[in-house]
Amino acid sequence: MSYKQNNFFSQVVKSILCTGIFLFTITGCESDDDSDDTLGSVRLYNASANAPEIFLTVDENIDEYDDDEADDFEKTFSSIELGESTGNFELEAKEYYVELAWQDDDSSYRDDLEVIYQTEHKITKDNIHLIVIAEDIQSPTVLSYDIAEIDDDDDADDELFNLSLLNMHPWSDGIDIYLSKSDESFNQAKLLGEYNYTELSDNQKLEIDEYVFYITSAGSEEVLYQSSEIDYQYTNQYVMVIRENPGVGDSPFVIDRVSSSNVELYQHEGDSAQFRTFNAIVNHDLLPNYQGEFALSLNSVDDSIEISATEFGEFSNSVGTAEGDYSADLSIPDTGEIILQNHLITLAENTDKTIFFYLEEDDVDLDGDGDVDEDGDGYVDEVEITVKSLVVDNSTSASIYNHEIKIINFVDNDDFNAVGFYFVRSDELIETASLYQNVSYSSPAAITLVNNTYSIYAVAQDGSSDVILVSTQLTLDENSEAMFLILEENIDAPSGYNVKFANQKGY
């Protein structure tokens, strides 16, 4: 009971049922009452893995220059990324133009967006018109589903909620979806149904309780996905959307619970995680045996991982492991001297992380009077060092039109406490650049850049002067990945500093 339409072509994927889903170019079962005082609602869900954030515009009259229609409805909703949805928005039951677009420049005004889809849609009385954008954003598939809004007075008394399932995973064999109470096993689970790609189920009424979902290939009993306990506390109406897992875990599936107001993501229970390390520990007189290389030991109750050596300024290889809480110890390979011990590293299911290790130097106030230069010779009397860890989540975005840059500043300088990073386009100067981040030492910041060529400047303020620590150039295109930009001290560089770029995904 589902139908699929591309921007430029359409394909019937299941037989047409009057109660459900419509091809945009086919007139479905119309409401018995199309008067203007009847209401339906509209929402957008983003299932396109390589899409940027998508804007939905609903426009009653696409001809904006028609003065006679000045009161026509028009609204552009906030953008949504993969796995997100706009809320349900009520509209008069009639036809509207639906426009999907993404932001390819600084402005998010509708007229400045890059439109990728524009077609009339019919909003019908007492129905949720769910629009789904899916597949390759360069030639997206856009689907629509009319879902009856359920407002049964008996649901509250009977403690029931309403549930439908939408399969947006192109699993070739189709999938079976099972459901059990949270205190039951898969052997006790109930088969909700078999669903092909883009298929939406009928609504089912279930008792308010905690449940676990299971996914298998159609006709198989091998569990490919098992959710954590999902608590249904209210008599709401939900759509459970099954889609491809963009993370690093073992299961190919994730599930989004879509309600009238929000979306909650559920990973495969106990899915594996992945991490790698980066060595930002500089040589220091107070760490005499350290020669720019460390070994890592990561231990949990059930697992132990060893990385023999990571050199200064380098990443280790990525390591897959079970989710869990780990204790991290760093040592000097040749001597076994411990330089960091018992740092908590939490690796949640289906996550990819980078663990940065760095050295922090602090001035010592020997007598607690706030003066670190007791003898007045103009120098700090004593310093102490600490090796620290910084855990950063790597982006799972596969957007081809814009890319996340996580900026890590590992320059510890008493003359400035932050560095400004400016991403300057061909028609800008540093002074006029609208894309910038001020980044403190060891405190990551993120910026999202659309495909373009940027001159990048790391600028520090020393007294009244702005000083360019380093400059470089970066070109982003459809083949680019989410990246780290790491600022480091480098005595061999002309300025004493350099920047390093690396893909956030270590695989």
From TrEMBL:
InterPro entries: EF_Hand_1_Ca_BS. This is DUF4397 domain-containing protein. It comes from Thalassotalea fonticola. The lineage of its organism: Bacteria, Pseudomonadati, Pseudomonadota, Gammaproteobacteria, Alteromonadales.
